[in-house]
Specification:
nine-stranded mixed beta sheet; about 25% strand; five-stranded parallel beta sheet; UDP-N-acetylmuramoyl-L-alanine:D-glutamate ligase; Rossmann fold; globular; alpha/beta
């Protein structure tokens, strides 16, 4: 990935995407399994907590917004409790113009996943698969036509829940072609004639094999199947997501691009396809080629599969992953606050003790290392809250920091004892502590407990404050004085 490609990420905030598809409610119920039921040979799942978020096409919209895009979102819900909850959640998403159409006799889709430790043990779905009414289909197409003129790219997120009839898809693609707008499809139907005329269809390997009605064993099999489907259905590009084998982009013109997988560790694949499609669409909207956009999509998918639940990513996540891939090791440890919160929570679910300390860490010295090593002795996972460049200037003066926030974060993340680095923009880490809720909050012993920011919060939920003895004679200020 080139530096020029990286710079395009800052243009995402100027992009406008029309997203149409099957929205659903994703519920994750976390707990543990310690025994088998005496009533039947099944595990007893002890519930610890629940999390609810937008799923399906709603997760595509969430990812688009997290990457900075403006989104018009069209979907259908039932006149039920879940439908009203989905409507409320969409309404709270910034940068989204929602068009949630209500069909009286419809059941709003819910997917409930039960997770013990890091393993999904059961998924329960409540849904209806029948097509929406003809009147509703016309409303979807009419709304799409009205909104399309104001947007750069159209996404059709098909989860097979009934929104996309042949007539609806045909009308939307025809309108997009007339307006010169690319259409990217995340398919569920095995009949790709439903997506006739699309700019790009992005199936996973299983979906491509179903559409081709045969097993695809080799790279050559995949390419041949893609070309057959493109020729038959007037599709310009097929981007095949292949799990651990990355992605393969096949253009009808003959160009083939294979992109190796980027995931460091696969934790949860829920929603990875949504993230990939959202990033692909934004790349196209930002005037990248399909090959360049697919490279970004692959990078994005590699990030979210390493996170629990239906995760989203940000531009900063992509930039961090880029630096990791091209410049330094350990960059996957540098997370934004939402991803950091999810990871810290997952560590605690696994029974690990999470520790936290914070600072500017401008010029690393033995005093810093002593603080980190001593803190790590009290916890299993160590998180560093790192002051941003702006907050360092406010605290230390205009001549500081010496090293930029990303340089400082990279150095910390390269240390084996550090498990996560989170950059915060405020003068204190209080907001970060409220999100992460660490078990241990550590500071140097030059502080008294009542002077440690967040001590009341941490002790209030049962955490512990640790004051670490300082290694005397070391400070960034002294180093700067010696250099002068």
């Amino acid at each position: 990935m080139t530096d020029q490609l990286l710079q395009v990420l800052d243009r995402f905030s100027n992009c406008r995407i029309l997203c149409i598809g099957d929205v659903m409610l994703d519920k994750f119920i976390y707990g543990h399994v310690d025994r088998i039921s005496p009533e039947a040979p099944i595990p007893v799942f002890s519930i610890k907590e629940e999390r609810t978020m937008l799923g399906g096409a709603g997760n595509v919209a969430r990812n688009l917004v997290a990457l900075g895009a403006h989104v018009a979102f069209i979907s259908v819900v039932g006149n039920d409790k879940v439908g009203r909850e989905i409507t409320s959640m969409i309404g709270k998403e910034p940068l989204v113009t929602p068009y949630l159409l209500t069909e009286t006799n419809r059941i709003s889709t819910t997917k409930i996943r039960y997770v013990a430790g890091t393993q999904q043990v059961l998924r329960a779905d409540h849904e209806i698969l029948t097509a929406v009414s003809d009147d509703m289909a016309r409303m979807i197409a009419d709304t799409a036509k009205e909104e399309m003129k104001n947007h750069d790219v159209v996404i059709l997120s098909d989860y097979g829940k009934g929104i996309f009839s042949r007539a609806t898809v045909s009308a939307i693609i025809a309108i997009a072609k007339a307006q010169g707008k690319p259409v990217i499809v995340d398919p569920k139907s095995r009949d790709f004639s439903l997506y006739q005329g699309a700019t790009c269809v992005s199936p996973n390997l299983h979906e491509l094999a179903n559409a081709a009605t045969r097993e695809l064993r080799t790279q050559e099999d995949i390419i041949a199947a893609a070309h057959e489907l493109m020729e038959k259905n007037d599709i310009a590009n097929i981007l095949v997501t292949r799990s651990k084998d990355g992605m393969t982009l096949i253009a009808r013109s003959g160009e083939i691009t294979h992109i190796a997988a980027q995931a460091q560790e696969v934790f949860d694949v829920s929603g990875a396809g949504d993230t990939a499609v959202a990033t692909l669409a934004l790349g196209i909207a930002a005037n990248l080629s399909f090959a360049e956009s697919a490279t970004l999509a692959n990078l994005a998918a590699g990030i979210v599969v390493g996170r629990p639940g239906t995760a989203i990513i940000t531009v900063q996540d992509l930039k961090t992953a880029f630096f990791m891939h091209n410049h330094a090791s350990g960059m996957h440890k540098i997370l934004e606050i939402a991803a950091a919160q999810a990871q810290a929570l997952q560590w605690q679910r696994e029974g690990k003790k999470v520790g936290f300390t914070n600072g500017c860490f401008d010029l690393m010295h033995p005093g810093h290392l002593a603080l980190l090593h001593e803190t790590k002795m009290h916890c299993d996972k160590l998180i560093i809250g790192l002051n941003s460049d702006a907050s360092v200037k406010r605290l230390k003066g205009e001549s500081r920091p010496i090293n930029s926030e990303m340089e400082r974060a990279m150095l910390l993340a390269s240390l084996a004892i550090v498990d996560m680095v989170v950059i915060f923009t405020e003068d204190t880490p209080l907001t970060l502590l409220e999100a992460l809720r660490p078990d241990i909050l550590a500071k140097g012993a030059d502080y008294q407990k009542h002077q440690v920011v967040g001590y009341e919060l941490v002790e209030g939920y049962g955490g512990k404050i640790v004051l670490v003895p300082l290694k005397q004679g070391y400070s960034t200020t002294n180093i700067i004085k010696k250099m002068a």
